[in-house]
Amino acid sequence: MARIIFTVTNDLSFDQRMQRIAGTLQRQGHEVTLVGRKRKQSIPLTPTLFRQVRLSCFFEKGPLFYIEFNIRLFSFLISKSTDYISSIDLDTILPCLAASVIRKTSRVYDAHEYFTEQKEIIRRPGIQRVWKTIERFAVPYFQQGYTVNSHLAMLFREEYGVNYAVIRNIPIKYTLEQNENQQISKFILYQGAVNEGRCFEQLIPAMKWVNAPLYIVGNGNFVEQVAELIRYHQVGHKVFLKGSLPPDELRLLTQQATIGVTLFEPNGINQYYSLANRFFDYMMAGVPQVCVDYPLYAELNQQHGFAELIPDTHPLTIGAALNKLLTNDVVYQQLRQNCLAAREILHWENEAVQLTQFYSKN
Fold first, then answer.
1. First to last CA, the chain
2. What averages of pLDDT result for each successive group of 10 residues across the chain (362 residues)?
3. In the chain, is it the N or the C terminus that has fewer CB atoms within a 10 Å radius of its CB?
4. What is the structure's pLDDT at 180?
5. Which residues 6+ apart lie within 8 Å of 300 measured at CB?
């Protein structure tokens, strides 16, 4: 069995994806360490089977944060004896590459998304050029890796000549809580990163025509703008920013929701060919959702039919879809039954086979 170090720039407490991956490999007999950041508002870490390390930084965001964190991460990695160093996305790839070369350690690239095509990156051409330069330099050195869907795997193969496996972000199967009050107190849920490109500019005004509250659970680089959108459109009485919740609390809240929302702007590869965690999280909770009709979502929905897909992200389109699920009980119950059927197939215990095989053969 192998010693594996995973590296991220986010707070470990709320990273359900990495907790799944690290926990699975630790249970398989590997010795796993997950390294992230410690922020001023970080809550205490929940005990896990695998080791967790949080690096403290003076800077909280911007270029100085990335420079400081990368230096601290390199110092940590260079001092550790391990079999694999795994970079989760592009923002930790340089220290992972440098440390793996110096220590003659195998390296893995976990491309959680197409980093250089995020909206917050592509709208700033200078920043995008910096990250694209890093990507072009570093990714070809990571011949071992995996990503979250087949289209992104194809893009990495075409651009960098790397053959990455596909391991989707599917949640662990769990027993659903009985919730008799679900339909009495209806609410709509957005869970996940509150970042640019998630259609908050369209979702918030859409709520003017929807007779149910919206809970936005998560943090990110667009929180202040979302708060301003709520004020501007005068929907503060039914749109609520809840911040981040620990995974166990979020799982319970998701089961209590009436509708979930999975929305992305169509501009940019990362949005159009996304396959978001929340898409599967709502399904696993038995909650129908309104989702964009982009290729990968459409492909899965054609097979399992648990989402109401919309052709565009205009506020009126979003509002109409939400109202349809709130008022049409026949459609809603069919989607819910399809969620319950799909969760028997689309769960982490099935998907994790790809992960364990990856680290067994490499």
1. 11
2. 95 90 96 94 89 93 93 97 96 97 97 87 91 96 95 94 95 83 78 94 98 96 96 98 93 96 90 92 98 96 98 98 98 98 96 93 73
3. N
4. 52
5. 275, 279, 346
**Distance between CA atoms of 107 and 23, rounded to whole angstroms?**
19
Q: How many Å separate Cα 323 from the centre of its chain?
A: 26
Residue 31: which domain range?
A: 3-170+347-361
Answer whether 255's CB lies under 8 Å from 55's CB: no
**CA dist list (Å): 347 to 19, 199, 344:** 15, 27, 7
Same domain, 12 and 45: yes
89 and 205, same domain (yes or no): no
Answer yes or no: do 324 and 351 share one domain. no
> What CA dihedral angle connects 18, 24, 26 and 31, to 10 degrees?
-60
- 132, 126, 197, 279: CA torsion to nearest 10: 20
Using CA atoms, how far apart are residues 100 and 110, in angstroms rounded to an integer?
15
Report the pLDDT value the prediction gives residue 119, as an integer from 0 to 100.
82
**What pLDDT shows up at residue 208?**
97
Domain total of the chain: 2
Please report which residue ranges of 58-199 form alpha helices under DSSP H: 62-78, 93-103, 119-122, 125-138, 150-160
Q: Is residue 181 part of a domain?
A: no
Examine residue 121 and state whether it is found in any structural domain, yes or no: yes
What lies within 8 Å, CB to CB, of 183 at 6+ separation is 258
